[in-house]
Task: inverse folding
C-alpha cells in the first residue's frame, strides 16, 4: 500500500514539473465539459437523499427519547409536544448512568493507553530484529492471532479470567490490549521499518539507552500510527458488548452497552425511557466524534489500508 | 536493511564507530529488546494461546462447563455434522454473511463514488455517513428493533403490503432480512472509507485524458475506475464476509435467535448453548470448525492480496 502511494506521489510531482503549460488547456476543458472542477449538483442531491438513511433513525431516536409513552403511541414521527428531560432523569437513575460512564471510561482509557504504550513497544522490538529467526517467529506467533475468532476461545477465557480474578475492569483492559496486539503489530511494524536506523545510532553514540531511544525518539515518531491505533482501540473498547457480557460477573460494573442490555430486559415496555438511555449511551462518543471528526475518519482510513 | 549490507570496520575509517555498533547489533541482541517482548509474550500466551489450547483439548471430551468429564474422541465433531441446529446456524450465518457483504459493498462503493465526486459539503457528508460506525452495535440494533416492530408495520399497512404489515422480526422467513438491514446500515460506513482510500489512488489525470477522448461517466466508471480499485473490492468483500460471519450483537438485540431457531448465528449458538446449555465441549468443537473456515478465508484473502500486489 505504501509503495503504491509513494509511486503515485512521485509521478504526480514529476507531472507538475514537466507540464507547466498543460494546466491551461485542462482548465478550459474543465469549464466547458463541467465534469471536473465544477460542483456536481446531482451527486450532492443524491448524498442529501442518501444521508436520510442515517439521519432518520437518529432523528427518530432523539424525538422518541423526549416523548411520553402515550404520545409515542399516537404520533411516532412527530416532534414531541414538550422537550421535557423526565425520561433522561429516569434512565439516568435506572441505569446508574454516572457509574456506567465511569466504568466505560476507565476501561476505554485504560485499554487505549496501555495498548499504545505496550503494543508500539512490542512492535518496535520486533520490527528492529526481524532478521533474527526467534524474533521473526515471535512476530508470526503474535500475528497469527488475527485468524482466531473470539467464539472459539470465549468459553475457556471466561473460565480463566474468573480463576485469575480478572473478571473485572482490569481484566477487560488486559484483554483489549492483548486481543488488539495482532492487528496493531501489523500497523506499527510497517511504519517502524520506514524510520531510519541511523537516527537511533546517532542517539546511541550520544549515550542514549535503548529505552531512552524508544520513548524519546521512536514513540513520538510513531504519532500517526498512535493516532490510528488509539482511535480504533477507543471505539472498540467503548462500543464492545460481547467481552464485557461474558467477562464482567459483577452486574454493578456493567459498561454502557452492557447496561442497555440489562436495562432492556427490565423495562422493555417504556420505550421513551429506553430511548433516552440509548441516547445517553451514544452521547459521549458522539460528542467526541463531532469534535474530532476529521481525525477519526483519517485515522480509520489509515487503519483500513492495512 | 542497511545493517545487513554494512561491512566490517576498517581502521582509519571515520565511519568505523557506527560500523562497530552495527556489527555488535548483528551479533548480540540488546537485552532491552528482550524485556520489551517478554511481558507481552507471557500475557499473550496466558490470555490467548492457553485458552485456545484448552478449548481444543476440551473438544475431545464431554465437558459440560462444570462437573466431571472424560474423553470421547472425535464424537463431538461427528455429532456436529448430523446436528440440524448446527446446520441451521451455519446456513443462516452464511446466507446472512453473503447477502450482507454483497449489499454492503455495492452500497459502499456507490456511496464512495458519490462522496469522491466534486460535490458540495463533501467533508460534512463524509462525517454524516460515517456516524453509524462509531455507534455501539447493540444500541443501534435496539433502535432498529423498535422501528421494525412499530414504524415499518404502519408503513406496510398504509401501503397494503402484507409482508410488511407485521413485524419483520417475528416473521420466520424474513427476520434474517431485518438483521441484514441493521448489519449493512452499520458496516457501509467502514467499507465506504476503504473505497474512498482506494479511489484516491486513482490518478485524476486518467479521467481528464479519457474525458478528452470523449468517454462518458458510465464508460469511465466501468472501464477505468472499477478495474483500478478491484484490489479494494476483493479485500473489502473478504473482510466484510469475515466480519459478518461473527454476527452476534444484532442477534442478541433483535431476535435472540428466533423466531424458533431461524436466526441463530454460529457465535450466538456457541455463546448460548456453550454457557447456558451445558454444551461447553460440543460448542467449542463448533468453534474449531468455525475457526478453520476463518483460516481458509484468511488464506484466500492473503493469496488474493498477493496476486494483486504482483500486478
Result:
Amino acid at each position: 500500500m505504501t509503495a503504491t502511494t509513494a509511486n503515485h506521489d512521485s509521478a504526480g510531482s514529476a507531472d507538475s514539473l514537466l507540464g507547466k503549460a498543460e494546466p491551461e488547456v485542462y482548465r478550459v476543458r474543465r469549464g466547458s465539459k463541467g465534469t471536473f472542477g465544477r460542483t456536481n449538483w446531482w451527486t450532492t442531491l443524491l448524498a442529501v437523499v442518501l444521508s436520510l438513511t442515517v439521519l432518520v433513525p437518529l432523528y427518530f431516536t432523539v424525538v422518541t427519547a423526549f416523548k411520553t409513552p402515550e404520545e409515542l403511541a399516537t404520533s411516532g414521527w412527530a416532534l414531541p409536544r414538550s422537550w421535557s428531560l423526565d425520561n433522561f432523569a429516569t434512565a439516568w437513575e435506572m441505569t446508574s448512568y454516572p457509574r456506567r460512564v465511569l466504568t466505560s471510561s476507565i476501561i476505554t482509557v485504560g485499554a487505549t493507553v496501555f495498548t499504545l504504550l505496550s503494543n508500539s513497544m512490542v512492535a518496535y522490538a520486533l520490527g528492529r530484529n526481524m532478521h533474527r529467526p526467534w524474533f521473526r517467529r515471535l512476530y508470526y506467533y503474535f500475528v497469527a492471532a488475527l485468524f482466531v475468532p473470539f467464539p472459539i476461545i470465549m468459553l475457556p477465557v471466561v473460565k480463566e479470567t474468573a480463576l485469575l480474578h480478572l473478571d473485572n475492569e482490569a481484566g477487560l483492559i488486559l484483554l483489549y490490549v492483548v486481543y488488539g496486539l495482532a492487528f496493531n503489530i501489523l500497523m506499527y511494524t510497517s511504519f517502524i521499518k520506514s524510520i531510519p536506523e541511523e537516527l537511533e545510532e546517532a542517539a546511541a553514540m550520544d549515550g542514549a539507552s535503548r529505552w531512552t531511544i524508544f520513548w524519546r525518539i521512536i514513540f513520538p515518531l510513531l504519532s500517526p500510527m498512535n493516532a490510528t491505533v488509539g482511535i480504533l482501540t477507543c471505539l472498540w473498547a467503548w462500543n464492545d458488548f460481547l467481552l464485557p457480557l461474558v467477562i464482567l460477573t459483577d452486574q454493578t460494573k456493567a459498561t454502557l452497552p452492557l447496561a442497555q442490555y440489562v436495562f432492556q430486559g427490565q423495562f422493555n415496555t417504556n420505550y421513551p425511557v429506553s430511548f433516552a438511555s440509548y441516547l445517553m449511551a451514544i452521547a459521549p462518543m458522539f460528542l467526541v466524534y463531532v469534535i474530532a471528526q476529521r481525525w477519526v475518519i483519517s485515522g480509520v482510513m489509515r487503519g483500513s489500508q492495512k | 536493511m542497511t545493517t545487513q549490507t554494512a561491512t566490517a570496520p576498517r581502521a582509519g575509517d571515520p565511519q568505523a564507530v557506527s560500523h562497530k555498533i552495527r556489527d555488535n547489533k548483528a551479533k548480540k541482541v540488546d537485552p532491552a529488546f528482550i524485556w520489551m517482548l517478554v511481558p507481552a509474550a507471557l500475557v499473550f500466551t496466558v490470555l490467548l494461546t492457553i485458552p485456545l489450547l484448552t478449548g481444543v483439548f476440551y473438544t475431545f471430551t464431554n465437558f459440560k462447563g462444570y462437573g466431571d468429564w472424560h474423553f470421547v474422541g472425535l464424537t463431538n465433531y461427528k455429532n456436529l455434522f448430523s446436528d440440524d441446529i448446527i446446520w441451521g446456524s451455519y446456513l443462516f450465518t452464511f446466507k446472512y454473511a453473503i447477502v450482507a457483504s454483497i449489499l454492503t459493498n455495492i452500497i459502499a462503493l456507490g456511496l464512495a463514488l458519490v462522496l469522491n465526486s466534486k460535490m458540495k459539503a463533501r467533508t460534512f457528508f463524509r462525517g454524516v455517513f460515517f456516524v453509524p460506525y462509531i455507534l455501539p452495535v447493540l444500541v443501534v440494533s435496539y433502535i432498529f428493533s423498535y422501528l421494525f416492530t412499530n414504524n415499518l408495520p404502519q408503513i406496510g399497512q398504509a401501503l397494503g403490503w402484507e409482508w410488511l404489515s407485521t413485524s419483520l422480526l417475528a416473521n420466520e422467513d424474513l427476520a434474517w432480512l431485518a438483521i441484514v438491514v441493521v448489519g449493512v446500515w452499520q458496516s457501509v460506513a467502514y467499507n465506504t472509507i476503504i473505497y474512498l482510500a482506494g479511489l484516491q489512488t486513482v490518478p485524476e489525470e486518467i479521467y481528464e485524458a479519457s474525458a478528452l477522448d470523449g468517454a462518458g461517466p458510465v464508460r469511465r466508471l466501468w472501464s477505468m475506475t472499477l478495474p483500478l480499485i478491484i484490489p479494494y473490492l476483493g479485500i473489502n468483500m473478504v473482510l466484510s464476509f469475515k466480519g459478518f460471519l461473527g454476527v452476534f450483537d444484532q442477534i442478541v438485540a433483535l431476535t435472540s435467535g428466533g423466531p424458533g431457531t431461524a436466526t441463530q448465528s454460529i457465535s450466538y449458538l456457541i455463546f448460548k448453548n456453550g454457557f447456558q446449555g451445558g454444551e461447553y465441549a460440543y460448542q467449542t468443537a463448533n468453534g474449531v470448525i468455525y475457526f478453520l473456515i476463518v483460516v481458509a478465508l484468511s488464506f484466500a484473502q492473503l493469496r488474493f492480496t498477493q496476486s494483486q500486489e504482483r500486478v
Q: What stands out?
A: The two ends of chain B are 24 Å apart (CA to CA).
